[in-house]
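Suppose a colleague, Dr. K., hands you the sequence of a protein chain of 352 amino acids and asks what its three-dimensional shape might be. Before reaching for any lab equipment, you can write down a predicted structure in token form. Begin with the sequence itself:
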Amino acid sequence: MSVSGERKKRTLRPDFNRRIKLDFQGATLSSDTGFLLLREIDERFGIFEELADDLLDSRSPTHTKHSIVQMIRQRVYQMAAGYEDCNDADFLRVDPALRLSLGKDADLGASQSMLSRLENDILGNAESLKALDEAILRSADALIKKKWKYRFIMDVDSTVDPTHGNQEGSKYNGHFRSECFHPIFAFTGEGDALAGVLRPGKVHSADGTLDLIKPLVDRYRKRFQLFWFRGDAAFAKPEIYEHCESKRVTYFIRLPQNETLKEMIHDDLHRPAGRWPGSGIKVSVFDFMYQAGRWNKPRRVVCKIEWHLDELFPRVGFIVTNSRLSSKEVVKVYNGRANVENRIKEGKNTLR
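The predicted structure, expressed as tokens, is then:
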């Protein structure tokens, strides 16, 4: 036992800087040592190291105290640790754990004014945003390589981000009934973030979907025998079906109801007779071929009809797909996309 009463344990040393030693004696704990963990994760996945080659730095080298990578790390680490305001940098820049995680040692970190110039001057252009997107994909590559060997699932969804004040790109959205941004995201089937685009509030949910998924499909399609795409009814667009078919991507997309679809299943909408199961729900699943007016060919549609014991009318849903799975399996695969909504909520709560 130590003098303070803790059991002696092997000290930990992060790979990125072996001079740093971590132990767990109460007298030497710091409330912000999580910065060191963030740097260790960053180092192992190689998230930010290659950014310097892709970003244009117009600063004079003789008057530069902080590299681009150090400033990006400081901004991201601060947000991840709960210091989302740039003003927090003015007191965090002296924190020893943050300075060690940035590789600053005895030197101070960047101030609020430096980080603000980073966001506005260095990162505030199309090329820099593209480089940041590539950094996100590099971090996802390691997870994808480790988790999946045979099949890859990509989920796409949009969300509402309410705004307050006259923020650039903030527009009124009639569906959400608020001034907002309307970003779109792509995740893996297990909820790992692949990409995101911040869009004005008034755009349609599927606006820009092809621009979002095309580079992802090109990046990952050849690595897997099966590549699945899932989306809700907002993404039921002919151009998305056609692109998926041209790239051998299997899609599972909810199809909005219309009068033609209702007419095609009219004979299946009679309330079932007989004893109800313990769940109080009777389910019927079947498929048929259907071609909408804008489609270039007929496509397979899977219909699910749910009768609930305490409800007068059934719940009906349609899924358009090019999969060869059975109808029940198609419904099961599509239902798995609910995970993407949980990941978006999780991200919002974390940032909040």
